[in-house]
Specification:
The chain has helices at 2-7, 10-26, 30-34, 40-47, 55-64, 69-79, 88-97, 101-117, 124-139, 149-160, 167-176, 182-192, 203-222, 226-238, 246-262, 268-281, 285-305. By secondary structure, it is mainly alpha-helical. The N and C termini lie far apart (78 Å).
Length: 306
C-alpha cells in the first residue's frame, strides 16, 4: 500500500474507481470496456487502483462505455466532495435558485479561506477566480458583497488572455458582467462568441454562451445602451437556438419584448404578459412572479416619465 501511495496519488487512482462504477452501472463487461484499446488485465488493474493508464487510452475506453468527459468529471467532483468546495454547477446554482443566502455566504467564505491558504502555491489563480465568481453570484441576493477594483482587473486580465473560451470562462463572464464597464463587456462578449473557437459548437458550451449573452442583453437594456443590446439580440436570432434549449428560446422572446418596450413599443408589454402566463401554465411560479413584479415596475417607471 505504501509503495502504491508513493507511486500514484489518490486523485490518479480515483479515476479508475469512478470508471469501474460507470462501467458496471452501464452494464458493460471488462472485455467490452477494454475493447481493442487495452488488455482486460490492464483494465482490471486500473479499476482496482493498482495502476493508471495514458490519457489517450482512457478517453477511448470512456467512449467504449458511452460516457463523456463532462459526466465523468461531475462524478469525480462528487467523489472528492469533501475536498472540492466548489461544485459550482450544482451547489451554487441550487443555492441561488432557492435564494439560500446563508448557503451562498458559507460557500463564499469557504472559498476565501481556501484562497488565503493557497496564497503561496500554484493554484492561487484558480481559487481567486472561484472566489470572485462566488462573490458576484452572492451579490445578486446580498448587496453588501461586491467585486473590488483589483478583483475586476484580475478577472478582465484573465478573460482578455484567453485563446479558447470554455464553459467555466463563459459562465464567469455572465455571472460577473454587472461589475464590468460597458466597453470591456462588449469587447469580451465579442471574443467569447468568436466563431473561430474550437469549442463553440459543443452543445453545453453553446448553451452557456446563449445564457451569458441573454444576461448581457439585460444589463445593456437596463443601462439604456440599446445599440449593443440589439446587436446581441440579433446574434441570438441568427444562430437559431435549438428547440432543445426551450428555456433559452423563451428568455430571448421575453428579453426582446423587454428591449422593444424600452425603445417605445407599447405593444411589447402584451408579449411580456404572454410570457408570464406561459410560465404560470408550466407552474414556473417563481419566475412568473418575478416577471409580474418587473412589469409593474416598468409601468410605474413609464408613468413617472410621462
Amino acid at each position: 500500500m505504501d509503495k502504491k501511495t508513493k507511486k500514484y496519488s489518490e486523485e490518479e487512482l480515483a479515476i479508475g474507481i469512478i470508471f469501474k462504477e460507470f462501467r458496471i452501472s452501464k452494464g458493460f463487461s471488462q472485455l467490452e470496456a477494454a475493447g481493442n484499446e487495452i488488455s482486460v488485465t490492464h483494465l482490471s488493474n486500473f479499476e482496482n487502483g493498482k495502476t493508471v493508464i495514458s490519457t489517450n487510452h482512457f478517453l477511448n475506453i470512456l467512449q467504449n462505455i458511452n460516457v463523456n468527459m463532462f459526466e465523468f468529471q461531475n462524478s469525480l467532483n462528487q467523489y472528492f466532495q469533501k475536498k472540492d468546495l466548489l461544485l459550482f454547477n450544482i451547489e451554487m446554482a441550487d443555492a441561488f435558485a432557492e435564494k439560500n443566502v446563508s448557503k451562498l455566504r458559507m460557500i463564499t467564505e469557504e472559498l476565501h479561506k481556501k484562497l488565503e491558504i493557497s496564497s503561496t502555491i500554484s493554484t492561487t489563480k484558480k481559487y481567486r477566480l472561484d472566489y470572485i465568481r462566488a462573490k458576484s453570484i452572492l451579490s445578486f441576493v446580498d448587496s453588501s458583497y461586491f467585486l473590488t477594483k483589483s478583483e475586476i482587473t484580475f478577472l478582465e486580465n484573465y478573460l482578455y488572455n484567453l485563446k479558447e473560451w470554455g464553459q467555466y470562462d463563459i459562465a464567469i463572464l455572465g455571472q460577473c458582467a454587472q461589475f464590468l464597464d460597458f466597453i470591456h463587456l462588449i469587447e469580451l462578449s465579442d471574443r467569447m462568441i468568436n466563431p473561430s473557437q474550437n469549442s463553440i459548437n459543443i452543445s453545453y458550451v453553446k448553451q452557456a454562451i446563449i445564457q451569458t449573452v441573454l444576461n448581457i442583453i439585460n444589463i445593456f437594456v437596463d443601462a439604456g445602451l440599446y445599440t449593443p443590446a440589439r446587436k446581441f439580440i440579433k446574434y441570438l436570432e441568427n444562430i437559431k437556438i435549438n428547440d432543445n434549449y426551450m428555456f433559452e428560446k423563451f428568455t430571448l422572446v421575453y428579453n426582446t419584448a423587454r428591449y422593444n418596450y424600452k425603445i417605445g413599443d407599447e405593444g411589447a408589454l402584451a408579449v411580456m404578459n404572454d410570457c408570464r402566463k406561459a410560465l404560470e401554465f408550466c407552474k414556473c411560479f417563481n419566475t412568473s412572479n418575478w416577471i409580474a413584479e418587473e412589469i409593474i415596475r416598468i409601468k410605474d417607471q413609464n408613468s413617472k416619465n410621462n
